Structures are given as structure tokens and as C-alpha cells.
Predict the 3D structure of the following.
Amino acid sequence: MPLLREKEGLELIVWPEDRECDRSWLLDNIPGATGVLATLSNKVNEEFFEIAGPSLKVVSTLSVGFDHVDLVALNKHKVRLGYTPDVLTDAVADASVMLALMAGRNAGAGVTLVKEGQWPKFNWAPFFFCGPQLSPTSFTPKRTMGFLGFGRVAQATLARLAAFGITHCIYTGNPASSPDTALEERLKEQHKLQGIRRVDLDELARESDVVFVLAPGGEKTRHIINESFLRKMKKRSILVNAARGTLVDSDALAKALEEEWIWSAGLDVVEGEPKITADHPLLKHPRCVIVPHIGSATFETRLGMTTLAAKNLLAGISGEEMPSEVEVSKYV
Ligand code: GLV
Ligand code: GLV
């Protein structure tokens, strides 16, 4: 990260590989650190803070999500937290649409079939590899896109779907607050929607043609997509998860696919990732597409994220205002 390398008076210790850093390496190197730039695969917990010691002022995570950070421990140790919202919104929205298309059109299984030399068996046939169409048709004029969580990424995903001719949107929000009618009006006008409505989980499951899971991870949202939710979904609906694996109960999803409660699933994240092996029930299912948590993985977005994370780190070290700081008091 040039921004850090060029900064005078900064002693940098950098994990040299482009893979998750070993826990033992991390714990060996954080004692006495003033700031740590972490990724979502580093558990930032009580052990981490105790080993880092009282010199630690800031953790800057290279992610918008911060469910890997124990906020209570962070707060107790008086450490600040930087994160990288906004700069990755478009990339994750692009990936969400990609997953909806891949899952709906069986692209994962299609690629496998061609690679395995099976194409000649089928050639082109009228109903070969058919899936539900994302854009509206004369047979299915009303396509409803459902969003579990309606933040930046969900709204950017909706903007892309509007170009597919989507006119109906439903979403869930915090039941403790009332729907943001100004936002609804703005989006309705901007994307020429016929309907946009905040709904409860029950209605989200029943009405959506695609459910996009785009809410934060953590204990509060764990398994929010469970058997009861999946059983209510439409038979030809699609589940997309580009948020955190923990939101979706994998066993229930495998059952939903197996027993055809839903059509397919497109997942950028999976519970228990990255330890997903060939015998995982979701991997065995042809209508489940899984990609390895690459929602924000474009050259441009990762450059934006690393730059922002470096700026957060430097600001935190010098006790200045960070470009993007998590308001920890809101969560503890
Ligand atoms: C990626 O999952 C992130 O939280 O940035
Ligand atoms: C499809 O390839 C078509 O020509 O309709």
C-alpha cells in the first residue's frame, strides 16, 4: 500500500502473502502496534486486544462488514474502528446481479457440463437448461425483487435491475423505525417503479421472485433465512447472498434446493467459509452457484478499499478524524 509505505516515521510490518494471514503470525506481530489493518478473515477479539496491548489506537478493516470485530472488546480497550463503505457499493451490486443471473439461468451447472464434455449429448433443445427469466415477460409481467436489508448495496442493485425492466421492489427494514417514505418516493421516480414497499419477512419470502440478502452479518441476523422462510418462497424464486454466510442456514437451503421449494441459489458467501469442500450439500446441488467471496473483487474497487483503509489507519494513528469510522457507540 504505497500510501503507508511513503509515510515517514511509520514502521510497517506486512504479511507478505495474498492469502489469509496465519493467526500465529498476526499474534506474534501485533504486540506494541499502534494501528492494525485487518481483513474480514482476521478475528479481532478480546485475545487480539490483550496481545496487542495498550499501545493500540486503531483497527482499520479492509471491508464494509465488521462482524469479525468484537465491538464490546474494542470499546473496552478504547480502540477506534475504520471500515470501507461506499467504495465497494457498485462492485457488490454488480456481483449481486451476476449471481441472480447465474443462479436463474443455471450458469454454474452449464459451465461444468461443457467442461465435462457433456454438451454433445444435448446440443440445443427447446427446454434444455431453461430457468426463470429475470426480466419481465408477457407470461410473467410482474417481477418482484426482494431485499433483505436495504442499504447502499441493495439500492445500487435495484438501480441495475431497473434497467432489466423490473418495476416492483419490496424490502425489509428495522421494525422499530417507520419506512423512509422520502427514499421510497425518490427511488420510485428515479427507477420508474410501479411499487416499492417495506414488508415483513413473511411477505418478503412469499412475494419475491429474487431475494437478495444484503444485510450485515453477526448474531442478530444469524439464520434469518431459515427453513420457515425458505418454505414460504415461490417455487421458481432465487436466493442471492452477497452479504455474510451466517445469514442463511446452509442445511435448510440445501433441503430447499433438494426438495425444490425454491428454484436456485447464488452465493458469494457461505456459512463456514472458506472450508467448503466437494461433499458440502450445497456444492452437490446443480442449482446452487457458489463463488469464493469475491463481491468487491475488482481491481478498481480493491484499490479504492485499500486506499480508504490506509487513510483510516493513518488518521486513527494520529488521532484525527477518519474518512470512514464505525460509530461504535451505536452498537455496544
Ligand atoms: C466484504 O464482504 C466486506 O465486508 O467488505
Ligand atoms: C437461439 O440461438 C436462437 O437463434 O433463437
Notes: The mean pLDDT is 96. Residues 40, 63-65, 88, 295-296 surround glyoxylic acid (ligand 1) (CB under 6 Å). Residues 170 and 203 are 9 Å apart (CA to CA).
